[in-house]
Write a structure and sequence with these properties.
Layout: E1 6-7, H1 33-36, H2 44-57, E2 63-64, E3 76-79, E4 88-94, E5 102-110, E6 113-121, E7 126-133, E8 142-148, E9 156-164, E10 167-176, E11 178-182, E12 191-198, E13 202-211, E14 214-223, E15 228-236, E16 242-250, E17 254-263, E18 266-271, E19 293-297, E20 313-319, E21 325-334, E22 339-343, E23 351-356, E24 359-364, E25 370-378, E26 388-392, E27 396-400, E28 413-415, H3 416-419
Antiparallel strand pairs: 1-3, 2-4, 3-4, 4-5, 5-6, 7-8, 8-9, 9-10, 11-12, 12-13, 13-14, 15-16, 16-17, 17-18, 19-20, 20-21, 21-22, 22-28, 23-24, 24-25, 25-27, 26-27
């Protein structure tokens, strides 16, 4: 959103559904308006006025909702939507009533006072996507919102609202499965990437520009119709191209990742080299702004082991639009005990595992020397006198009795909970 005064206010707020609710949703937290609004640049008076107005206009026990996908992870968004130097606020919420439909409250600030512009009630229970963007570059932000009924259904509805005569009006509605708004063709303007189709028949990724209240198709590419879209991330390839990373379930356990990107010849699909044996999602593992694709391999000596008992070594790689990959991380992850051991780059593809009673060792394949060892026990038991404590949780102690190796330090051990 170029050339706009961008004031993103508040923290992500989530909703906890009641025990009787049959709809699946991410774990969410209910908070009131006073918890949602951070102090804007113009000071506490503006913050207080907005908080008081929201409290005045909405019922006491509303649930403030955030989008499951998209960059905006807030329930109250404040922007200058029409470039007049004055602010508008959009409040995303649901009322605690039987239908629990997602609603939008629009407010406008003038002379330090907030006034209601309009209140819109959708026909949907869940919020998938929300973004404010000047899609047609007319100086006015459009409201892009994706809604759906249930996590058991893939098809959702895309709605676009425009500012018109002092109000937001719905100008477009169409079905979709996955939605992203970003500058894919690198023209300095944001496009809409829409994935839509029917499972086991077809899936297409379609890139649109928004013109004259319509979506103009720029290009289209086919995706795997037998892939169930389980995780979607919008981010950068290693060469800077914008891409949509689609982690999809294949069969009972496996997963693949398709990457949709706009190249010199139009919209194309990149696909990683191998099928993942288990689900592993794409993420920016090292916080460098580039997304990595997760995969895994069977360590030496475990090839004939029953699938459920294989201690897979996970790895994450970056990709370029040319398809070149570069591994940036390897690690052994124990999800049952909630820890991982990050393998130094010098040891990539050079280690295997040896399982112990209440422990595991990483072993040099060539020399069979133990590089790293971790053991665990309940916290109420006394650790050996020679033990070096690696980490502790409420119930467990993780420790080692080996000497620390310079090339594989104890700091490579991490609790999974610390990663998030």
């Amino acid at each position: 959103m170029k050339g706009k005064l961008k004031i993103f206010i508040l923290i992500a707020v989530f909703i906890i559904l009641s025990a009787c609710d049959i709809i699946e949703m991410p774990s969410l937290l209910v908070k009131g308006p006073s918890d949602l609004i951070e102090s804007p640049p113009s000071g506490d008076r503006q913050k207080t006025a907005l908080r008081e107005k929201v409290q005045q206009l909405l019922p006491v026990n509303v649930e403030f909702v955030t989008a499951k996908h998209g960059l905006t992870k807030e329930s109250i968004i404040v922007e200058d939507t029409n470039g007049d130097g004055e602010l508008e606020a959009v409040v995303l919420y649901r009322e605690n009533r039987e239908d629990r439909n997602v609603q939008l409250l629009f407010l406008h600030e003038k002379d330090g006072e907030w006034e209601q512009l309009t209140k819109l009630e959708t026909d949907y229970y869940l919020l998938d996507y929300f973004m404010l963007s000047d899609l047609d570059e007319d100086g006015v932000l459009e409201v892009v919102i994706g809604l759906y009924f249930s996590d058991f259904e893939t098809e959702k509805q895309l709605l676009i609202y425009e500012w018109n005569n002092g109000n937001f009006q719905q100008v477009l509605e169409r079905p979709y499965d996955v939605l992203d708004v970003a500058d894919y063709n690198r023209d300095g303007r944001e496009e809409l990437l829409v994935i839509h189709g029917k499972k086991r028949e077809f899936y297409n990724a379609e890139l649109f520009q928004y013109e004259n209240k319509e979506l103009q198709l720029l290009d289209i590419v086919s995706l795997d119709p037998y892939a169930f879209h389980e995780n979607v991330e919008s981010g950068k390839l290693s060469d800077g191209h914008q891409a949509l990373f689609i982690d999809s379930a294949i069969g009972a356990h496996s997963m693949t990742t398709e990457m949709v990107v706009f190249g010199d010849e139009g919209l194309i699909k990149l696909e990683e080299d191998m099928i993942k044996a288990k689900p592993l999602y794409s993420r920016d593992m090292n916080n460098d702004g580039v997304l990595e694709v997760g995969s895994m391999y069977i360590p030496q000596g475990w090839e004939e082991t029953a699938f459920a008992d294989i201690p897979f070594i996970e790895y994450y790689s970056t990709y370029s639009i040319a398809g070149d990959s570069h591994k940036v991380m390897e690690r052994y992850t124990d999800r049952e005990r909630r820890f991982y051991i990050e393998i130094p780059p010098v040891w990539f593809e050079k280690v295997t595992l040896n399982k112990l009673d209440n422990g595991v060792q990483l072993v040099d394949i060539a020399s069979r020397n133990v590089l790293f060892e971790v053991r665990w026990q309940e916290k109420d038991k006394l650790a050996p006198a020679s033990a070096t404590i690696l980490e502790e949780t409420k119930d467990m102690v993780f420790y080692t009795e080996m000497e620390e190796m310079k090339g594989f330090p104890f700091a490579q051990f991490h609790l999974l909970q610390d990663e998030f």
